[in-house]
Amino acid sequence: MLELKGITKIFNAGTVNENIVLRDINLKVDEGDFISIIGSNGAGKSTLLNVIAGVYPADRGTILLDGRDITRVPEHERARFIGRVFQDPMKGTAPSMTIEENLAIAYCRNARRTLKWGLNNKLREEFRQKLAETGLGLENRLNYKVKLLSGGQRQALTLIIATMVKPKLLLLDEHTAALDPSTARLINNLTEKIVLHKGITTLMITHNMEHAIKMGNRLIMMDKGQIILDIKDSDKTSLTVNELVGMFEQAAHRKFDEDRAMLRVSSS
Amino acid sequence: MWLFGLIITSLEQGLVFGIMALGVYITFKVLDFPDLTVDGSFPLGAAVASIMIFNGGNPFLALCLATAAGIAAGCITGFLNTRGKITGLLASILTMTALYSINLRIMGRANVTLLNAKTIFTYIEEWGVPYKWVFITLFVIAAFLIKVLLDCFLKTQIGFALRATGDNPEMARANGINTDTMKILGLSLSNGLVALSGALVAQYQGFADIGMGIGTIVAGLASVIIGEMMLGERSICMATFATLMGSFIYRLSIGIALRLGFAATDLKLLTTVLVIIALSTPKIRNLLRSTSSTASS
Predict the structure, then answer these.
(1) Separation in Å, CA of B247 to nearest CA in chain A
(2) What is the CATH number of the domain that holds A175?
(3) What is the tally of structural domains in chain A?
(4) Which of A65, A98, B176, B259 is the most exposed place for a label (fewest CB within 10 A)?
(5) Cβ within 8 Å of residue B196, ≥6 positions away
(6) Is A110 an 8 Å CB contact of chain B?
(7) Which chain B residues contact residue A114 at CB under 8 A?
(8) For residues B154 and A39, which has the higher predicted lDDT (pLDDT)?
(9) ipTM given for this complex
(10) Chain B residues near residue A98 by CB distance under 8 angstroms
(11) B51 in a domain, yes or no?
């Protein structure tokens, strides 16, 4: 459903600071895939998601979504079929607007916005049910401003916003990295619940190797702008952290250095 | 009795300039865009309306055309910012400066007097409203009608998109909102209201002057901030009401200052001081609170 062909992204091209962040990336994502992406800092993971989302254009290569070439489609138009959750809980919601207004914005993601009322009681009821499913107690706070919520509550809300209208593709950029361990667990559970229940094709960046192994049906490891490992289905189910470290060393031709790689081995 | 007169005058001015302040509310509070275009679009509205009325045109049509001219001015700032990638502040200063020449072209001279012309107020008087109440009647209706329409607009799907663009543009784009279009829309609406206000003020004071736009943005900001300080911003309905209220308080304080013997030429300085006090009061209050709490502990 998503196909990347020869995607290359260079920052500051032609200057002394030239930085090739993505090198000729080829990736074929199947319908319903839940892919976790790991890799050290500077491996190009976030850039990959940003190029897919259209935050900045690819310098070379094409992106196909359901057979349609979206390489030149602007970010806000891609957003109609691509949902995103960011690492920073502040990024995914409008803080001075209420919970229900945030959800109402997501509700119109795929439709033409008009001068109809943004909210009505039928929508409020629908939102209340959706929020009740998260178990965060937000369903009785529809008219609270989002800036009053905690980071975890905001991330849960962002997850609901991103999947309100079922996206063709969901991009999660370390969406639990800024949260404390127990909240992170809660958001991970919610992520699995929503993704599996709705069958949303998902790409998820994580720094946590155990999460990467446990969640999803496919694991991709990136290093220096390239995909160096792509492990699927049954191979992934039986994978252990130690095996993964070994595979990294073999593929990247260097020792796995935890500090340098910033890959957390324990689930903390 | 002079106090009653002062309050009525301040109400009239507060409401008619309040329409301008509502425009500033859209850019400053909703869009989070520092828009100085208003210093040019306010006299633009006045120029368009007064030259039409001076030449015997229909004053209602003149108001419509003045508003349209303001919308166009806002559009230009929006295009400079979104397509031309010029920062908001600079884009609006460019439009404002260009408008100075355009306004002179429209009027053909530095000021146009409407003393014997048939203005919108002449019509209202002909409908049987006593002269004393003509201004206040029209301004109450116009300001509150616009306030309610604005409240309603900000609660529509497009209104939500506009607010999200100002609140968190990244989130807006991630939800399929074209933030560039929304900025242009907000700036147009805002400057349309500012020009309408300018057109009404010209007829109210009986002349349009090339210099009447100087300090418009500061007066608008003063209204928004004073209102916010007094009534808070719990809801949109409340915030727009607070803006009109702030505009009234602002005009009242100017009236009192004049009464105290300040020259009219000192008013810009006074306004600036007022805005500085209003902007820094919450910070000073917090500072005092934190020093007193550390002192007591």
Answers:
(1) 24
(2) 3.40.50.300
(3) 1
(4) B259
(5) B19, B45, B63, B66, B67, B70
(6) yes
(7) 156-158
(8) B154
(9) 0.89
(10) none
(11) yes
